[in-house]
Each structure stands twice: as C-alpha cells, then as structure tokens.
Amino acid sequence: MLEIATFTLPEAAVHAGVHRRTVRHWIRTGRLPATQTPSGHWRVARADLDAMPLTTGQLARAVGVSPRTVQAWITSGKLPAERDRQGRYMVAAEWVDRIGRRHQEVGQAATGSGR
C-alpha cells in the first residue's frame, strides 16, 4: 500500500479524526504547517500532521471509543501523552492509525472475518 506524503485539507481532517474547520484553524493559527497551491488549496505533510497533538476527545472520536477509554489508556501507561498549558492530555495524531489498525484486527478476530 502506498503511503500518502501530503494530504488535502479534507484528507488531513479524516486522518486526524477532526473536522476540516479544525484543520483550517490549526493552519491559520500556525499550529500546523501547510503550503498553499497556486489555486488556493491547502496541502499538509503527513509527517507534520502525525506530529500534531490531539486532545483525548479528538483521539477518541477518530478511533471510535469514549474519551474515558483514552484517558484510561493514558493513566495506565498504554498510551503516551503530555499535558498542555491548560492541563489537558495531548496525544500525537500518529496514534490514530496505530489504534485504528489494532481495533480493526481485534474486530476481525472476534467475528472470524479477514481470513
């Protein structure tokens, strides 16, 4: 499978598990580096997006679990996180893919599909 090096704004939003307005806000405020094409469309490097920290709620929505589940993973040491200035747990967006793949494997094993 070919890895995507850059994302469009909607693709970046799906990858990070957030709304595209959130990605646009991150770009406007300088939290997420991006380049603009001559036609005005934004491109985000996968490496920059994967390095973006997400709140527990954003990560939970992206992988389909509750924020309490994400917080339990953090407090048990299963998921690395740092606290921001407001005291919120922040997790690197790269964990969206890692956790998503793991949930898919567990689901396939439970249903007997994917053989």
Q: Which tags fit this structure?
A:
globular, Multidrug-efflux Transporter Regulator, Chain: A, Domain 2, 3-stranded antiparallel sheet, 50% helix, 115 residues, 6 helices
* Broad shape: globular
Largest sheet: 3 strands, antiparallel
* Uncertain stretches of 5 or more adjacent residues: none
Q: What is the CA–CA distance across the termini? A: 18 Å
Arrangement of strands in the largest sheet: 1-3-2
DSSP, total strands: 6
CATH architecture of the largest domain: Orthogonal Bundle
What is the name of the CATH topology of the largest domain?
Multidrug-efflux Transporter Regulator, Chain: A, Domain 2
Structural class, from helix and strand content?
alpha+beta
Helices and strands, with pairings:
Elements (H helix, E strand, L loop, with lengths): L5 E3 H8 L3 H9 L6 E2 L5 E4 H6 L1 E3 H8 L3 H9 L6 E2 L5 E4 L1 H18 L4
Antiparallel strand pairs: 1-3, 2-3, 4-6, 5-6
Helix pairs in contact: 1-2, 4-5
Short précis:
This protein is an alpha+beta fold.
